[in-house]
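Section: Multi-chain targets

For targets with more than one molecule, the full set of components is provided together so that the structure can be written out for the assembly as a whole rather than chain by chain. Components appear in the order listed by the source. The example entry contains four components.
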Amino acid sequence: MVRLQGVTPMAAGLTISGLAGAGGVGVETIRYYQRRGLLAEPRRPHGSGMAGGIRRYGAEDVRRLRFIRSAQAAGFTLGEIAELLALDAGQDRQRARELAETRIGAIDAEIAKLQQAREALRRMAGACASTQDGPCPILTAFDG
Amino acid sequence: MVRLQGVTPMAAGLTISGLAGAGGVGVETIRYYQRRGLLAEPRRPHGSGMAGGIRRYGAEDVRRLRFIRSAQAAGFTLGEIAELLALDAGQDRQRARELAETRIGAIDAEIAKLQQAREALRRMAGACASTQDGPCPILTAFDG
DNA sequence: CTTGCAACCGTACCATGGTACGGCCCCTAG
DNA sequence: CTAGGGGCCGTACCATGGTACGGTTGCAAG
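Its structure, encoded as tokens over all components, is:
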């Protein structure tokens, strides 16, 4: 029987590639996040005599992983995300709000910049469309 | 007399640091753009016997530099910007429009993503503000 | 003409966020 | 029992967009 990626018959939890699949990332990315301290490295089973077993991951890990991806989409760096994850278990609501609001401000600024850029691009496309000959004045599209 | 940065009495053009100042970037960044082919390296004066003079830059260079910064703000990579600059002198309006419109699409998608993220952050800040005790459920802010 | 700042040049290094490689170990199907 | 695919690990490498360093000229004021 061909085992599907990371799917084990036993409900013992996901392997690393199962976790990766669940989060839509590569195995190496998981390991990278572990090195960065964003994801835990579960204990390897049976002893530790220079050869443990295979680590298993659960729903909690999947949630953390998904959170990481979402927070990244919100523009947080991995360092900031590490802080958020640490905060999640703790009591420092003040700090959490601070991070959130700083990021909201940055996002607003970024959206504004993108809208400016969008306008400039529309002008550029327009200028290139409106005349038929001669060079297209791309350089001036972003003037003003 | 103390020469101001890059300002020469003669109207012979800007030095590299004058150009950098005009574009709001560092000298090393100018040199980097030159290596990347985004800015020209003007001929050095008197001969070339293993020791030219000092390069001079003009208004055209300043415009290109400002364009580069604006285009970067619009999310173009330096590679794409190089293409735009090449296009500017040429006739390929089709290609120019194509680049512009592709970028506009990407910008729209990015804005949408940022707005989603902004919402999530607002929820997170709200959740952290609305209760006084227990851990703040940051992980769930990005759910859904 | 000395002194000293700038320009010039090649090359090395940085941060970010991964991605790849090679060697070894474990585990299970066939 | 053996082969093969994954897991595990350290370490190297990649792209992007710069930033820094060290040594050599240029050049202009004092």
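Chain B has a mean pLDDT of 86.
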